[in-house]
Sequence to fold (659 residues):
Amino acid sequence: MNYLTRRLIHGIMLLIGASILCFLFADFAPGSFFDEIKLNPQISPETVAALRSRYGLDQPMPVRYVRWAKSVFRGEWGYSFAYNAPVRSLLAVRAGNTLLLTGVATFLAWLIAVPWGIWIAAHPGRGIDRLSMGSTSVLLSVPELVLALGLLYLVVRTHALPVGGMVSLRFDQLGRWSKIRDLATHLVIPVTTLVLANLPIILRHVRSSMMEVLKAPFIQAARGHGISKASLLFHYALPAAANPLISLFGFSMGGLLSGSLLVEVVTGWPGLGPLLLEATMSRDLYVVVGVVMSSTLFMILGNLLADAMLLAADPRVRMQ
Amino acid sequence: MKSIPIGRSSRDEIPRLLRVCGLSVKYGADGQALEAALRQLDLEISAGEVVGILGESGCGKSTLALSILGLLPADARVDGSILFRNEELLGMSEAQLRRIRGAKISLINQEPGLALSPVMRVGEQIAEVIGAHSGLKRKARKQEAEAMLRAVNLTNAGRICAAYPHQLSGGELHRVAIGQALACRPDLVIADEPTRSLDVIVQAEILGVLRNLKQKFGTALIFITHDPALLVGFADRVVVMYAGRAVEQGPSSRMFGRPLHPYTKGLLNLVARVPRRDGSAPAGLLPVIPGGPPYLEALTSGCAFEPRCSRKTEICQSEDPEELMPEAGHRVSCFHHGS
Fold:
């Protein structure tokens, strides 16, 4: 069987397993959405019981799981108690917002980290290398929450940028270019936070795998054949150093939905983060499962993408 | 026989292709004990000549190859002079060296499997070297690379060009490495144990290829090996190295016919052991040179070979022998070369 087909089947099994686990854990969690309604003396226990059975919560777990799986195939992904709407329509808007944020941040982080990492790998021990290593180790040890709060503090003091939200209140009255400008200024804080949080990891991976390859005998041999420095770095070393970077790239693709949840909550970005927080607090079961499952799906797709890219990049992987 | 000590200035004035004078290389970072890899090495090679460099592992053979190409690691301290076509290579800028490497002087590596990039097609890697030293267009480079592979007797050059290194056999890889080294028609090729990991039959084929190309292109060749048998009938001159020095050098007929240094004699004894016609093994134990090569950082006064030498006397312990020339072109560093 073809390597990619195998990985695909593997991914689907993983998805099913994850959904069962997710359901189990959600079930184990104490309380349910209707517990708070019960506290309201104006709503009779019969009404609550009727609501529970309408949403199928009186059924045993396996039955609920099957009902949920059926609704996934119908494209509903379950039903939100709080919004009284199918989960998918809720998720779609929020996931779009999250993807805009993480997509821009991931793109920028890679765009900066790859050339920078190659440069410092080619000049290890120099001032710029030490500075990069020092500053990234500081960044790595600072939680992204603190980064976000720090940035917010700066912005609030200087009034340089809008704080919170995705667009201004008068967004609908703006022209097309002003809309883009408005969106961009709102993106700055969460994107900067995410770039600062992800850049050190990518930078260090690029640096270490490039340094490893630059020590390889074939680089020395190519140097001995008079290959220019630029060609050595980009044509010889980079493709040979690419494998761990491709895996990391798949991983960061996989994190597109789940990597920014906290930052969204802190910076007020209307993505999946605030939705998940809210749904967890109110025990809106299927919304929680939906968010977790969609980020799992992204994780698996990201890894599949990495597998496919590895296959394309490395003739030795194609061999086996 | 009269022995004439040779001063460096009294050397012949004929322009040589490569002239290495008093080359010393030490390894070690600042403040640490330095480890000498080469000590006062002198070596000359004329255009089109084949010079065999013979010695055990750790005698400095590979250091010599790397210092000629300016590829020594950053912690190496180099002294002396390396003139290539009367141009000093030591201290040359990286940009100047880049134009010489691969174009004028090139290196055939010990392990071609490791010396080729695992993720680039073989043809592309040869074309890349051609491209680094000529203004040829992409297509012309590729044709040139294929032609080079045919020149090293690879019949299906097209397939090899499109292959990755891990898809080729050891013999094919060695031919590719030779083709790559000769792609820009260099004046000098340094082959650093080019047949080390091969079985005897493939080894002979590879030597044949080298010989052919050398004749075809008129390339001078420095052939580094530990096996004297590979140099017989191939090398014009032989340099025997021991502990970072050339202990004896001369035309190969003299070196193999009448070696002067006890170490050379010992080395040659090791190979002259072919089974007899009737198939029985030669009588007696295989000869050995007792002991092992010295740790170069532990060298004190006296001849470096003295501890292992069968002819040592008192003087060998206290003084380092100077280089002498008992016959024209045949130099040796030993007090007892005559005996």
